[in-house]
Write a structure and sequence with these properties.
The structure is a homodimer. By secondary structure, chain A is mainly α. Chain A has helices spanning about 5-25, 35-40, 45-50, 55-75, 90-105, 105-115, 120-135, 145-170, 175-190, 190-195, and strands at about 80, 85, 200. Chain A has ten helices and three strands, in the order ααααββααααααβ. Chains A and B meet through β2, α7, α8, α9 and α10 of A and β2, α7, α8, α9 and α10 of B. The first copy, chain A, binds a DNA duplex through α1 and α3.
DNA sequence: AATCAAAATTAACGATTTGTTCGTTATTTA
DNA sequence: TAAATAACGAACAAATCGTTAATTTTGATT
């Protein structure tokens, strides 16, 4: 909102952000103290309290800053659903974009996911979906079935995507964003059973 | 493993379990102190350290105890997949069983999910899936496509189910286990797009 | 019922962390 | 250059931590 005028403020906050990541790389978040953060950021401990309420406050703002950066810069808002029709190729492009952004910020996500910050990220991700994506789907809210299953399906898809990203970005010898995106899109459009090459006991 | 012989031990540990839940209902886990747990459980603070390493240890064991109870008692291990064929009705029964068990332990899950303990639960849930379910799928490991997409799909499905459970058990005026199970099975067998009543731009 | 082993209590300890205060110094902005 | 304000450094009481040791209480066993 308001521009952070003073250079000193920007410097302090940036240092604390980086200090948090560096420390979370080494040890569990719960064991990190304000003094350690101040040491790592090379600021006085009292200065920390001029900017953040506590370390949880710092973490939350840090995560939001990163996700805003990624979602707003790299994931361009496009309409991949029109009049009840899912445009697979557009959807594929969006997922690929997200995965590429994640890969660019590899270190951040690896640290966060290995520190079990999934929920913090997921909650804010869902918030962004509600703010950015859902308004674009207004023209299809007429469908009764969609309306009935809207909430549960959003939860389901976002949880699934976050789960995949968590697994993907923290696994060794991971495949490329395109390949993962292909699977994700396949699962969402045709279902996991189809992607796995299985068959169903009932035809319909 | 070994039976907890002494009544006093059982009593102390049970008191601490309940104290943890009671306190987590009122305040964030990060702000809970050992002294508070001891007070609530009506035991001495030193006694806590005779049983648990710290409060994270208590939380983890508490979660595992609950999930073991639920998964081993209520979710009977059945084979819902044979020779590459998914038996929809059996799968539906399993999901319903899980949701019913969650509903029986409503308070536990509400507290845990509202306290952002999803990951603790998810991780152990995935562990159980690997131990209990995957061995039963041994006869279909031959499929190349399955093997290639196995890990990612497990992450995807488990994440999705946990996400749905989280949303479901913490939402007001929630629907019954059967109805949710039907949606979940529908999503997994036919895909979210179908369940939402949408169409795809490409036929295949 | 009596005995023994184990669990829980009590009090105390030094060390660490916390959140806040103050007056002083350094830097930025205008 | 001058005024504003951010950061520093030191110090404070309060709370929490994890552990110790001696003592008391409890339960399981015979």
């Amino acid at each position: 909102m308001t521009k952070k005028q003073d250079l000193r403020v920007q410097r302090t906050r940036k240092s604390l952000n980086q200090a948090l990541l560096t420390l979370m790389e080494k040890k569990k978040f719960s064991t990190i103290t304000i003094q350690e953060l101040a040491n790592e950021a090379m600021i006085n401990r009292a200065t920390f309290y001029l900017h953040y309420y506590d370390k949880y406050d710092l973490l939350e703002i840090c995560v939001k800053d990163y996700l805003d950066e990624i979602m707003l810069k790299h994931v361009t808002p496009v309409r991949h659903i029109r009049e009840g029709v899912v445009y697979t190729d557009v959807f594929y492009a969006i997922v690929t974009d997200i995965l590429k952004s994640v890969e660019i910020n590899e270190r951040f996500f690896q640290i966060m996911f290995q520190s079990n910050c999934d929920n913090l990220i997921k909650d804010y991700f869902i918030e962004l979906v509600h703010d950015k994506f859902l308004p674009q789907l207004g023209d299809m809210f007429s469908g009764r079935q969609f309306e009935r299953h809207k909430n549960i399906t959003i939860q389901l898809i976002v949880s699934a995507i976050i789960g995949v990203i968590t697994w993907w970005i923290t696994s060794e010898d991971r495949e490329g964003p395109e390949e993962i995106a292909q699977i994700v899109v396949g699962v969402i459009t045709k279902g996991p059973v189809y992607v796995l090459g299985l068959k169903m006991s009932e035809p319909n």
